[in-house]
Amino acid sequence: EEGLESWFRPRRRVRVLVQTPEEGRVLVQTPEGGRMQTVTLIPGDGIGPEISTAVMKIFEAAKAPIQWEEKNVTAIKGPGGKWIIPPEAKESMDKNKIGLKGPLKTPIAAGHPSMNLLLRKTFDLYANVRPCMSIEGYKTPYTDVDLVTIRENTEGEYSGIEHTIVDGVVQSIKLITEDASRKIAEYAFEYAKNNQRASVTAVHKANIMRMSDGLFLRKCRQVAENYRDIKFTEMYLDTVCLNMVQDPTQFDVLVMPNLYGDILSDLCAGLIGGLGVTPSGNIGANNVAIFESVHGTAPDIAGLDLANPTALLLSAVMMLRHMGMHDYSKKIETACFNTIRDKKVLTGDLGGKSKCSEFTAEICQRVRDMD
Amino acid sequence: MATVKPLPPPAKYGGRHTVTLIPGDGIGPELLNHVRELFRFSCVPVDFEVVNVCSSTEDDINNAITAIRRNGVALKGNIETLHTLPASHKSRNNLLRTSLDLYANVMHCKSLPGVQTRHNNIDIMIIRENTEGEYSSLEHESVTGVVECLKIITRTNSLRIAEYAFKLAREKGRKRVTAVHKANIMKLGDGLFLQCCREVAAGYPDIAFDAMIVDNTTMQLVSKPQQFDVMVMPNLYGNVVSNVCAGLVGGPGLVPGANYGHDYAVFETATRNTGKSIADRNIANPTAMLLASCMMLDHLKLYDYATMIRNAVLTTMNETRVRLNSPRRCSPHTFHN
Q1: How many angstroms separate the Cα of A216 from the Cα of each of A65, A204, A212, B136?
Q2: GO cellular component terms (chain A) (predicted)?
Q3: Which residue from A minimizes the CA distance to B238?
């Protein structure tokens, strides 16, 4: 009978990371398992709506306990003249804490800053995480890539502080603070611990930028003391680039300031096949996490059912892992990788001729077959 | 543009040139010893004035700079910068480059026959601004726990490097110059650099010009590096891109680099590694340093010697079918030609 069976069904343990704002420490909390979780979905522009629909269909086929709340984040002028995202979107994110976002376009002459920048500032998304794993079936010159880049997302070279000192001389300021460096280092080590990664490498250029990158390194070293079972190494940015294109298997988790992170994360995305297959997650203060696809809006193929939903799907899988739903994430990820590996139904950018809906249907079928 | 100063007379006496040699740290000394042996064996009319630079005192680097000013040309190994020392201790290599105003770092990445790599048919020239940008070494801690580092971009230097890039492209018969930047984020700084490149490009209608953002550039480099021809960029992006390209054609042991200023030229390996972990074990690859010495001979107008040595190096590599990442004894290779 149903009642007796429930004794023998293994209880699913779900672990969720929670950061207490006042102490800044990361605790582990166990919520009740099996509850429906609401996630804010931002479809985005261009191919965004199609790929979001694809992801929703696949999640439905997998019977994942996720409820989607669609919100639009087109910037509006708030009180005081500052550009903000619509208040309903902000409330929804603050309530749900987890978001999935498609590509957003920034109109050039709109007068407001980039949408991604706005979201970053609104939710203080301090860490950008990109796991790069070679996809079997999507051949690139690099096989066996399995690394994660963790990039500090708020300061560094992207502080946006620039002045023209005299005509023809411009100075850009790179800002490195103790707090931000400590937060990103802590996140990197926690991520390594929770995902069974063996080592963390700090990427820097402290030989040239002695004080700024030196501060970043010092903080990383301090945090490393609390995680003795994870190996900590430091490497110059140029050495990392040099070794990355020769042998990417030697790297595990990489943590770095903003600019180096930007360049290296895109370099690693290039190793596994580009932005169309790379997932990405942004972690913010107050446990907010927004997972996104980092490719563009592809306006030329928007609405033609030709888009590849892999990037958004893998980001959604990352989201499930973050929420502790490891069974569902494994199921969907395996279905996706198997579809790509079998090469029968692939979208145009992966080398096939199928439509987005056919690719999605194939993955849904595999997911259902797994049950 | 500054008025052209007359070049100082070459350090040549009795038909023999004098070149400053800075061994540096790590694998530098052993590689430069190979160069000296080869030059002696081939009877190249070059005498080396060796200047050792120890990382701790200021005097050594000043002596080296004076020696280079005297001779005009130098061949150097990388000088280690211990980043545990305080910020007042500047990188010696950087000090050398800025004092002598070696504003252009030129690196030619070409797929070598006989070297197995993942990508083939790569032929990229990278011209990197060598004196300003992120390497200005201007940092301060305004409030405890908050450090500011200044990146300086000037119109003069940007115009100068762009002019150098286009002139070199024309000389070598290249068709396209790509400027690498991040002007969508650093609108004023990289925006100024890009604007200067565009202005110079207008004066060279025979050469195509385009621009690419640095993160996209690295992604394109690892998937399709054959699309690039000549690339020009500010200092830090130059560091990243040149290391990526060196990795693509086979590693740091194969690519030579040159730093050109208006009056002086300093030659070294392109990726400027100290190589401490492989020093004194006779396994470092001397190709990069040997090819750099050939570039130096070209600069001194000793073209025949340069061609002879270059052919010998490339033939050796081709014949012995170099497999990278396998330890080879370094010295027998040198005497193979």
Answers
A1: 40, 8, 7, 19
A2: mitochondrion
A3: A238
| Rounded CA separation A292/A280 (Å) | 6
Computed from CA positions of residues B227, B233, B235, B236, in that sequence, does the dihedral angle turn out positive or negative?
A: negative
The full length of chain B comes to: 337
Q: Looking at CA atoms only, how far is residue B71 from chain A in angstroms? A: 28
CA-CA distance, A331 to A333, in Å (whole number)?
6
Domains of chain A: 35-134+273-370 (3.40.718.10), 141-272 (3.40.718.10)
Residue A119 contacts residue A99 (beta carbons within 8 Å): no
Site from A245, A249, A277 to mutate, B interface, most B CB atoms within 10 angstroms: A245
Residue partners of A260: CB distance under 8 A and separation at least 6: A151, A203, A204, A205, A237
Tell me what ipTM this predicted complex has: 0.87
Q: Which of residues 308-327 of B touch A (CB under 8 A)?
A: 324-325
What number of helices (H) and strands (E) belong to chain B? 10, 13
Tens of pLDDT, residue by residue, chain B (337 residues): 445 555 556 677 788 999 999 998 899 999 999 999 999 999 999 999 999 987 667 788 999 999 999 999 999 999 888 877 777 778 889 999 999 999 999 999 999 888 889 999 999 999 999 999 888 888 999 899 999 999 999 999 999 999 999 999 999 999 999 999 998 888 899 999 999 999 999 999 999 999 999 999 999 999 999 999 999 999 999 999 999 999 999 999 999 999 999 999 999 999 888 888 888 888 888 999 999 999 999 999 999 999 999 999 988 887 765 444 333 444 444 444 4
Looking at CA atoms only, how far is residue A272 from chain B in angstroms?
Answer: 9
User: Could you identify the residue written with the tokens 């080396």?
Assistant: B48
The beta-carbon neighbor of A241 closest among B155, B220, B243 is B243
Question: How many angstroms separate the CA atoms of A154 and A113, rounded?
Answer: 15
Q: Smallest CA–CA separation between A116 and chain B, in Å?
A: 12
B221 touches chain A (CB under 8 A): yes
